[in-house]
Amino acid sequence: MEHVCCCLDKKLGVCGSNSSLPPPMEECYTLIWLENGCFTELFKPDSNEKLMTIKQFNNYAGEIFQLAKNLYARNSNSELYRLICFQHISGSKNMAFNSQVYYVGKYDSDLYNPKNVVDGIFNNDISLGSCVILKPSNSLQTKLTIKLSGYHFINKVILWPTNENVNQLLKIYVYWPENLCADNIQVNNDSSTEVLCKNLQIKEHSHVTIEPKLDNHLHLCEIEILSNNIAYLKPAISKYTVGSMQTLVDGSTTASLEIRLGINYWIAINLLSYYNVFGLDVKPNLYNLIYFKNFYIELTNENPALVYNSTKSTLCAKKIFDVISLDDYYSFMCSKGGVKGQFVVFRSTQTPYEKVVIGEIKIFGYYLAPSNQINTNILLHKPTWASDTLNHYYAYLLTDGFYEAYFHTLNKKKPWARIDMLGIYRLFRIAIANRHQNFANRARYIRGLVSNYQDFSIDYQLYYSKICFINNDEFESGEYRLWDCQQPNPIGRFIILYLHSDDQYFNILEAEAYGEEIIDDDLSLLPLIKSDRKVDSNSFSNRDTNEQFPLKIIDGLSENIEKLGQFLSCSGTLTNDNIEGRITVYMNDLYMINQVVTILSLPLLKENFENVQVAVEIFNTILQRQICSLKNDSQREHLLYECKSVGDRVSFYKIGGNNIMKTWAHFQMPHIDIH
């Protein structure tokens, strides 16, 4: 009997054996491009590359990869080698959100204010105050400019249309008109339009301008701007730091941060999803180059605050004690093909640690998949409230996703903060990002509880809650710490963090929780599609009209503060005499609505929400208010209304007075789908 053995060589199969010939098929180009370390998803050979032999193209691809290590290296056509090699891979953070907006032109109503395009609301109904309609003024070219925070490589611009059927041809440029991102952009009317910036002549900038080319009118509802830096404004955490970790990912290079790196001393960027990372650009402090050495960078799916297990991490790159140039950034390339993970972690083998000074960290790679359950923070943008607050350091800062501003109570016995997870969860872990320097040990006696009760005295916690963790150990400056919940894992809707102390300030940067949702047919979140009010009369006299349209109460953000100069995520209605004010939120179908969760604006003025009637209603029927009842007589900003009524909208009515009336709310609705 004869046996035939075949040895399969993929490259031999698609490229052939003669490297002096051009690649016989497009797959050969892709394979060679990948083998040399460049990204392939969008790669197509151009006319010059098609003239190369296999050997020439292999050498060319290897050269491109080496040149791509330099953040600013360009070819003779001013194209960045980084973008040639790794194509247009973009981060997920919209840099345009809440940015400054400048414009040339005019608008007929605040419903069409240019600032609406950076409010984070994607509703395309022009009657609701989330879009811009900009018209020409005095024969000048209409244009809209967004000024970003910091300087960035602009990689992609996403344009969201209005619900009108308009023909728009646009151009986008960065800083000056000749520095084109793209020209002759035809805007889709039924979906977003994604624009890749391929030919920018300058390396980084903060100003992005959109101009119409047909009739000098601009109709858009939202603009997103993305860079290739997937680290931008992602959570930056550490075992030890003496300053704000967000300094490293804020897009600004004006400040540096001293950190400690060792086996048990680390810093990490949580990318919030699963990525394939190709490399990093790290800015050293040029006056402290001696403190930029002896560390390595890994990718992992393990939270770095857990006990270190090297088998669950993959090395990206190392920085040993060598001479570095005075370039803006020091670039690290991961192994060819990239390294996968959610956490980008810096450590050192030095004992106990190495002092390192860094100014900024940029990471480039591409998105693979959502984070797994164990690494998805349940608390992000969830409603919060506290025993009290010092000045404007309100509890919403615990869940806003920005690890910079801190929550702060008064100096009281057992101060606390509570978080509504808006669902029933089995909790596995709770974490906090703590303050730095001399304030860290204020949180030494922190404890974490899980409960199904909205409001109870901490002194009676044994009757109303389960313990997740108890901490008695001291904190390092700026330490991020993670606790496994006590067994069996507690189940509940509310998390309570408090200090087991007679007199202490409670102030930390951020809270996180990890676990699994337990499906409860009586408590699942309903998608809210729009919100409007009876009279467009402002509730906040010191804020612009466009900042407080009713869509703000369903924008999904946790911010419920009214403070001049800060993003407003609240709305309301102002009426006089015997006129009844109304704000209504709408659903996409009929539901059995069990409960309405309402978050009031801060600073809390009780009279602004007194005598408010909450009612479930059905559209296109004879108006009948099915009144909801307040679950408890809470004096705080977190209110629960019990309804148990069928409807497709919920209205808030201000009743019982003939003076100036003011109501506002930021709320979400658990529901039962009755289909």
TrEMBL record:
Signal peptide location: none
Classification via InterPro entries: BG_Antigen-Binding_Lectin, Galactose-bd-like_sf
Coiled-coil annotated spans: none
Protein name: DgyrCDS14402
Biological source species: Dimorphilus gyrociliatus
